[in-house]
């Protein structure tokens, strides 16, 4: 009964370094999302995917890339990290059918020095 | 651009009180509205989802209402308990379950 799993949970990067956050869901959901949460700003959508092999930009996509090669995985990449990308990142997934309730992961805290 | 506002930003009440959290949004073209709970350092847990055609949803001590025409939703918590202490977030679905979130109300229920 894992739901949505994010790895890693914590990471510290230096400016200019690259990294990938992994999101995995075991609920056979079609839709997956990456949000970032910053103090006083609420959660903002970075990128999302409505199915395997598809991705689309959200509200704040600059500086990030994503891939959805498998239905259960959604990867968020930072090619050249900047201090402005210090944040808590949340992955979520949702079924295309039914009540469309989003299930969130526990979050990944990223610090860029 | 859709904007979601939550008032108050923080609320402190004694145990047993009934309370209301407010959420307003600027564009009434929404598919649904969700209320979430977030505990410190944790992810979000969905509490209630109201479809755009519905007026309210209830789950236990929680009741959420939606007035789409006026761009408002309320979350009513009856007989509050210390375990209800958390941040409550509302979010509107703008399509494909893409959510626009408010900044949340931090609730503290004292014993």
Describe the structure.
The complex is a heterodimer of chains A (113) and B (111). With 113 residues, chain A is mainly beta. Chain A is 0% helix and 50% strand. Chain A is built from no helices and 11 strands. In chain A, strands 2, 4, 5, 6, 9, 10 and 11 form a 7-stranded mixed beta sheet that branches. A 4-stranded antiparallel beta sheet of chain A has the order 1-3-8-7, with no helix packed on it. Chain A is globular. The mean pLDDT of chain A is 93. Chain B has 111 residues and is an all-beta fold. Chain B has no helices and 11 strands. Chain B has strands at 4-7, 10-14, 19-25, 32-38, 44-51, 56-59, 62-67, 72-77, 86-93, 99-101, 105-110. In chain B, the strands form 2 sheets. In chain B, strands 2, 4, 5, 9, 10 and 11 form a 6-stranded mixed beta sheet that branches. A 5-stranded antiparallel beta sheet of chain B has the order 1-3-8-7-6, with no helix packed on it. In chain B, β7 and β8 form a beta hairpin. The N and C termini of chain B lie far apart (41 Å).
Features:
heterodimer, A: 113 residues, mainly beta, seven-stranded mixed β-sheet, four-stranded antiparallel β-sheet, 11 strands, globular, B: 111 residues, six-stranded mixed β-sheet, five-stranded antiparallel β-sheet
| Number of DSSP-assigned strands of chain B | 11
The helix-strand sequence of chain B is EEEEEEEEEEE
Largest sheet data of chain B: 6 strands, mixed
Radius of gyration of chain B: 13 Å
- SS class of chain B: mainly beta
In DSSP terms, counting alpha (H) and pi (I) runs of 4 or more, how many helices of chain A? 0
Residue windows where pLDDT falls under 50 for at least 5 positions of chain B? none
Low-confidence stretches of chain A: none
Query: What percentage of the residues of chain A does DSSP assign to strands (E)?
Result: over 45%
Ends of chain B: how far apart?
41 Å
